[in-house]
Amino acid sequence: MGFHLGTLMVTKPTGRGVPVLDFFAVDQQAETTEAILEIIKRQNNSWTQIETVVIDKDFTEWKVLLKCFPHAEVLLCQFHVYAYWKKLVKKRLYAPKAVHGDAIL
């Protein structure tokens, strides 16, 4: 279909995440993400109480969140960062050569 699925989650006092909004976006551009967040803000007056936002490795999303929620701290999710680096290191470009095997061990 060409759409991107997004989910907005909140954390309960118990620490468990709960999805509060699923949405489709035509793209993942900054303008689209900002428009979606502004709609959410208009529909939810308590948006000013947001203290922290956790994201994956999307730095475009990071900039938009800083703009839309200036009082919130934006953090990278350790799981997603680790998974990204693990995938990156496995790429052939970064894979160690067989001749370097002894040096690595």
> What overall form do the CA principal axes indicate?
globular
Fold-level CATH name: Nucleotidyltransferase, domain 5
Structural class: alpha+beta
Q: Major sheet: order of its strands?
A: 1-2
InterPro entries: Zinc_finger_SWIM, ZSWIM1-3_RNaseH-like
Pfam families: ZSWIM1-3_RNaseH-like
Protein name: ZSWIM1/3 RNaseH-like domain-containing protein
Ordered list of secondary-structure elements with their pairings:
Elements: E1 4-11, E2 17-25, H1 30-43, E3 52-55, H2 59-68, E4 73-76, H3 78-90, H4 101-104
Parallel strand pairs: 3-4
Antiparallel strand pairs: 1-2
Helix pairs in contact: 1-2
Output the keywords.
about 100 residues; alpha+beta; two-stranded antiparallel ribbon; 4 helices; globular
Provide a brief overview of the structure.
This is ZSWIM1/3 RNaseH-like domain-containing protein. Residues 2-75 form the ZSWIM1/3 RNaseH-like domain. This protein is α+β, with helices and mostly antiparallel strands and 105 residues long.
Describe it for me?
The chain is of the alpha+beta class and 105 residues long. The protein has one domain (4-104): Nucleotidyltransferase, domain 5 (2-Layer Sandwich), CATH 3.30.420. The chain has 4 helices and 4 strands. The protein has helices spanning 30-43, 59-68, 78-90, 101-104; strands at residues 4-11, 17-25, 52-55, 73-76. The strands form 2 sheets. A two-stranded antiparallel sheet has the order 1-2. Strands 3-4 form a two-stranded parallel sheet. α1 runs parallel beside α2 (59-68). The radius of gyration is 18 Å and the shape is globular. 3% of the residues are buried. The model has no long low-confidence stretch (mean pLDDT 85). This is ZSWIM1/3 RNaseH-like domain-containing protein.
